[in-house]
Amino acid sequence: xxxxxxxxxxxxxxxxxxxxxxxxxxxxxxxxxxxxxxxxxxxxxxxxxxxxxxxxxxxxxxxxxxxxxxxxxxxxxxxxxxxxxxxxxxxxxxxxxxxxxxxxxxxxxxxxxxxxxxxxxxxxxxxxxxxxxxxxxxxxxxxxxxxxxxxxxxxxxxxxxxxxxxxxxxxxxxxxxxxxxxxxxxxxxxxxxxxxxxxxxxxxxxxxxxxxxxxxxxxxxxxxxxxxxxxxxxxx
Amino acid sequence: xxxxxxxxxxxxxxxxxxxxxxxxxxxxxxxxxxxxxxxxxxxxxxxxxxxxxxxxxxxxxxxxxxxxxxxxxxxxxxxxxxxxxxxxxxxxxxxxxxxxx
Lengths: 236, 101
Prior knowledge:
The complex is a heterodimer.
Chain A: E1 3-11, E2 29-33, E3 36-43, H1 51-65, E4 71-72, H2 82-91, H3 93-103, E5 106-114, H4 121-136, H5 142-174, E6 178-183, E7 190-199, H6 203-210, H7 213-217, E8 222-228
Antiparallel strand pairs in A: 1-3, 1-4, 2-3, 5-7, 5-8, 6-7
Chain B: E1 2-5, H1 34-46, E2 55-59, E3 62-67, E4 71-75, E5 86-90
Antiparallel strand pairs in B: 2-3, 4-5
């Protein structure tokens, strides 16, 4: 018996366009269950998230969101059969209904800000390079380790402060176009990464508000992506 | 009542037809900016509604950890967290018995 790979949860009656295929080129079907419709395709076993599968999964989610704002299902929710999938959805019915209502008519836009280039960073880099040479010469000791640790903590505090300031500036720039916000983890050189839930009709205004943000606030680069389906606002 | 349809009855005129333009096109594997691909993978794999009953974490085809319905491995989502750090959280809403095998 084949299992099911779910792509999204949407409102009842919203079904896939004819011929839409998903993972492995398999036909995507729509299941109506109470107030929901779930888009799935048959999948013999839990699929692995390789790049092609991820792109195909997203393509089906986008097809659903082209019709009505739908909740993307996280990759990896393979179910051994219809009854199991229905059971999982029923267990979370109230949460799913609330999430669908919250994202109705909206899309997700992502904003990533790369780290600010500030004076003094050059001296910091030279110091680090000097210490690296010291270590290579076999002269590393406890002091060097503690200095390195201290520098890491100081760097972390600096980034935290810069991140807080940038977030507030970003929020001021796009207020009140963002209906909801999720702040995501970042790794250097990214300083801030947020997802905003924005009404479909306000996407143009949102982008316009961010034009020039990088220049105005002295950051290296601001990267705006989307519109995406509401991945970040679909619940945990 | 649960129904199954093999194809859609298009909701002509009933829903807004605003396309999600400007993002990664479907079936595109080449030519997309690496940053956008990373963001796509992050979204599809790490976000969205979680409808899993069980979670198996594996590396190189070796299943390392099997977690039941009540436990979810969640990455710490604060900005200062060290990459790769995580914590084990007690899940909520699990019903006795869980999913059938």
